[in-house]
């Protein structure tokens, strides 16, 4: 959209307040995601913070663009951006976590990858795969 066309867009007080609210919510989520990226201890935790918070933050700002420009033209681009973010961000985070796991990046605090010999399920299954352990008498 050109500068002349952008200046021709008129917004009412309710629409303006909604735009301001969406941008404020987006900025808040982006700040939380950035703080999570800087403060959390390992790649998995950082990825969690950035994928969730920044997706919601960027989507909120794209929704503000949709509200500002309306349903056609640049507003449609904002709406497509929201859909694209919600499809690609979880997929990207999943791929990054799989790659980190394959590279041997460990979890913070002794947590183990789900299904790899850790946790209480591994204690219940014996070497031959039979159930052992904490079953109470009479459960047969």
UniProtKB/TrEMBL annotation:
<feature type="transmembrane region" description="Helical">
    <location>
        <begin position="50"/>
        <end position="69"/>
    </location>
</feature>
<protein>
    <submittedName>
        <fullName>Cation:proton antiporter</fullName>
    </submittedName>
</protein>
<dbReference type="GO" id="GO:0015385">
    <property type="term" value="F:sodium:proton antiporter activity"/>
</dbReference>
<keyword id="KW-0472">Membrane</keyword>
<dbReference type="Pfam" id="PF03334">
    <property type="entry name" value="PhaG_MnhG_YufB"/>
</dbReference>
<keyword id="KW-1133">Transmembrane helix</keyword>
<feature type="transmembrane region" description="Helical">
    <location>
        <begin position="75"/>
        <end position="93"/>
    </location>
</feature>
<feature type="compositionally biased region" description="Polar residues">
    <location>
        <begin position="129"/>
        <end position="140"/>
    </location>
</feature>
<keyword id="KW-0812">Transmembrane</keyword>
<feature type="region of interest" description="Disordered">
    <location>
        <begin position="114"/>
        <end position="140"/>
    </location>
</feature>
<feature type="transmembrane region" description="Helical">
    <location>
        <begin position="17"/>
        <end position="38"/>
    </location>
</feature>
<dbReference type="InterPro" id="IPR005133">
    <property type="entry name" value="PhaG_MnhG_YufB"/>
</dbReference>
